[in-house]
Amino acid sequence: MFKTVTLWLHKWLGIITGVVVTILSLTGCIYTFQDELKLVAYPEKYFISGTTGHPTIPLPLSTLLHNAQKSLPTDEKITRVDLYPTKNRTWVFRAVKTDENAFGHWNYYKYYKRVFVNPYSGQVQHVENSKTEFFQLTLQLHLNLLLGKRFGHPIVAWSTAIFIIILLSGIVLWWPKKWKGKNLKRSFWIDTKVKWKRLNHDLHNVIGFYSLFIGLIFAITGLAFAFPGFKKSYIATFNVLQSTTASSGRISPVPLPTAENQFQDNALRYALTNYPTAEMMSIRLKKDTQTGMDIQVRHDEKRSGVFDWLYFDRRGNNLYEIKSSEQLHYGDKLGALNYDIHTGSIGNISTKIIACLGSLCCASLPITGYIIWMNKSKKKRKKGYQQNVNKYC
């Protein structure tokens, strides 16, 4: 009885969410390597052309920001800067404005531009309409099915939650009746010599078992993006496990250098000088009425969960706080690593490969599941038809 109910639940939840799960898995597979693929696909954007003869010190941030802003319409404001201290990379200035209530991807983004600037010459190397860029479309398809946040996000969120139920019910259905002989072997190994219907069933069964753990990781970390309350809950839960108090990050104010006239230029100069091994820095530009500036220092370009946040005060012209990922409570640290875990960036290239292959396996499960369902439906119709023929013959 229990297995019958589980099979019914597994089948119909899979039928309802199968298309969404396949889309999420395939787009996740592609996006896993987006950092590497972008550099190969768009070298003219991300790499400085002709580095010889250029100064070794970047121009002031205010100058670069002015040049980038001039390349955009006056109503499109730059709100973020991603910069790379390595000498052969451009800096990326982002201008984004969204409509949270709009339907469809092209209505959700009022505009989304990336301006690629040579930080040593100040030249704008490329202006990208990120609204139509392939990897951005892939990301939005993954996040909200290109339906806009208001309409697509709930579908993705609840499909992800249901996927966890499907995975857990799948392990109940996979469980061998006898842990010996042919049944046990079929649960762990695929026999390619059987008929295609049996092969498809075994593929669904065996791949489902081997991808269970990584599928659960994808789904649970996905829930943290989909439901902020869920993320807060597990962060609070893991924080309880740490008895010691994490450092607040407050420091004695450190005066900034005064080499430049602008506060933001001196703040960035401090960050570049004191974090020479950083692979990336990110600045969220604040409104003119605010008095501070924050810079995120990433020690590994591809890992968002390993960082130092530097907080600068304009009025005092100083650095007054540093928040490091190493100082976080257990729960906060896990929350910061959520993106890295979800995308496979938590380790080196090997974890990305595992994440990519795991996504492909998850994408295959709804497909093989649909085939099983259609085969059984066809068999039932055929059986019913034969019974009617026998009845009237």
TrEMBL record:
Keywords per UniProt: Membrane, Transmembrane, Transmembrane helix
InterPro entries: PepSY-ass_TM
One family name in Pfam for this protein: PepSY_TM
Native organism: Sphingobacterium zeae
Full protein name: Iron-regulated membrane protein
Transmembrane segments: 12-33, 155-176, 207-227, 349-373
Domain of life per record: Bacteria
Keyword field contains Transmembrane helix: yes
